[in-house]
Automatic annotation (TrEMBL):
Pfam families: His_Phos_1. GO terms for molecular function: fructose-2,6-bisphosphate 2-phosphatase activity. This is Phosphoglycerate mutase family protein. Substrate binds at residues 46, 75-78. It comes from the Bacteria. Keywords: Hydrolase. InterPro entries: His_Pase_superF_clade-1, His_PPase_superfam, Phosphoglycerate_Mutase. GO terms for biological process: negative regulation of glycolytic process; regulation of pentose-phosphate shunt. GO terms for cellular component: cytosol. It comes from Bifidobacterium psychraerophilum.
Length: 210
């Protein structure tokens, strides 16, 4: 719902709209023939419903995995700026550094700076810094790697959030992807995760924003 109002939506739990439900159904149809060994999702309601909807459409998994919810798969935490107008929040973060919009912050200083600037601007400093953010996200991949039921070559469903997906692309994608286009709600991105390697080398992007 916050997307409709152009408000920051990280750890806050606004509900899926009818469009959001349709996005989940579309993703479910696209992935219906994929046999998933395991499924993980953010513990926000919108992610949990999306995971349940995708798995309900699935005809290939036997048995059908139960999605495991965990806070490590959440979107970035925007702290004091949760639910606030995006333009106003990014102005507060970037203007002291001479960048008045989110895109300008990223273009001039990088995606990591957008998190650090918002953390700095947050009067409570609850918005995640870049370091805090990646420590949590890497914890999510550690949870997947520790699952004894998942083996080399298995397909695993992970439901997270748009800015987290974009952040993974900025960090791990090879050249050639247009990252000025944000991932669409309900889109599918495929990532290979080699659990034998350290996390900085373990992820490689196969396809983005399908």
């Amino acid at each position: 719902m916050f997307n409709r109002y152009n408000r920051l939506q990280g750890w806050s739990n606004s509900p899926l709209t009818e469009t959001g439900m349709a996005d989940a159904e579309r993703a479910g149809r696209k992935l219906a023939s994929v046999s998933f060994t395991a499924a993980f999702c953010s513990d926000t309601t919108r992610a949990q419903i999306t995971a349940q909807t995708i798995l309900r459409c699935n005809t290939a998994s036997d048995p059908l995995p139960e999605p495991r919810s965990d806070m490590h798969f959440r979107e970035q935490c925007y702290g004091y700026y949760e639910g606030q107008d995006m333009a106003a929040a990014w102005w507060a973060a970037g203007a002291p550094h001479g960048a008045g919009t989110y895109n300008e912050i990223v273009e001039r200083f990088g995606l990591g700076a957008s998190r650090d600037f918002l953390h700095e601007a947050d009067p409570f400093h609850d918005a995640e810094s870049d370091g805090e953010y990646w420590k949590r996200v890497e914890g999510g991949f550690a949870i997947i790697a520790a699952d004894e039921g998942v083996h080399d070559g298995d397909d695993v469903l992970v439901i997270s959030h748009g800015n987290t997906l974009l952040s993974l692309m900025h960090r791990y994608a090879p050249q050639g992807y247009d990252l000025s286009e944000r991932p669409r709600n309900g889109s599918v991105t495929r990532i290979d995760f080699d659990t034998s390697k350290p996390i900085d080398e373990a992820l490689s992007v196969v396809a983005y924003n399908e």
